[in-house]
């Protein structure tokens, strides 16, 4: 009986603490709302779709990185301080961030008091001294990025959950892998080799299927047993949903915001458009993919089954602000034709390149 009383007391205390936290947030929000500013404020993290970007994805810092690698951190920091009034050039995530801001502007028009918005966080292991140049560059381009995390040479991965991150974009493949291992959607970004003119009033996001939205369970069969076994397997398990992949939760977050536009009869003018671009064949293995999305209560605006054809030319027509794929040869093909690409280092595909085994997979 005493144990029950202790548990009940603990629950009461927890609820009281939650109420106090809500009061604290409400008080802080009320204070800031009385401050006059033309800049939109960041949303409450618990409701926002939080996108964490590294400084090297937001800006092109290739020259600065070379100084760091060749001359060390002190010379690097000194260079950044010396040039802090010179805006950095846009990096691979820049257009994606601009598109997120476009969506936020539309959401604020339809839902002036809503906290369900994109929140962009600069997540970097840069030193605080470099922060002035980053802030100056953000203000130069009029980007809405108010939350920073600068870790002074330490990995920022441990902070991702604290910032309630829905997607992490970096140039560092090891950090991206670490984030995925922590259950956070993440990808390594690459600059395209040519530039495409992107849509300025709609966020376009393209996903590969296996090992990106879905697990790599079916891809393992392709790699280890061949296409015929894969087709047989997908037909047999057509009505069994695939397990989720590392980017499923990000598609889910996009869908949540899309539905806000649909609720206002804005489906045909929605500023978010999603694409599934998969090497799967439609007739032989496409039904399981679509049924899996349906079972999750999710949808994509366009589903493109290429049956092994190159993805680059199609992506060139779609012109996404970001394209996620688990296989580097698809990333390379997309980059060559001007698509901003993001590699998801997940699944059995990391052991192969252009169909050739790099590392012998472990036998089950």
Structure description:
With 364 residues, this protein is α/β, with parallel strands linked by helices. Helices cover 43% and strands 16% of the residues. The protein has 13 helices and 14 strands. The strands form three sheets. A ten-stranded mixed sheet has the order 5-4-1-6-7-12-11-8-9-10. A two-stranded antiparallel sheet has the order 2-3. Strand 6, helix 7 and strand 7 form a beta-alpha-beta unit. Helix 9 crosses helix 11 and helix 12 crosses helix 13. The longest helix is centred in the N-terminal third of the chain and has 32 residues.
| Strands, count | 14
- Strands side by side in the biggest sheet: 5-4-1-6-7-12-11-8-9-10
Straight-line N-to-C gap:
49 Å
For the biggest sheet, the summary is:
10 strands, mixed
Which range does the strand content fall in? Answer: 15-25%
Low-confidence sequence ranges: none
Q: What's the pLDDT, averaged over the residues?
A: 89
Order of helices and strands: HEHEHHEHEHEEHEEHHHEHEHEHEEE
Task: Label the structural class.
Answer: alpha/beta
Number of helices: 13
Helix fraction bin: 40-55%
Query: What is the alpha-carbon Rg in Å?
Result: 22 Å
Give the overall shape, derived from the CA principal axes.
globular
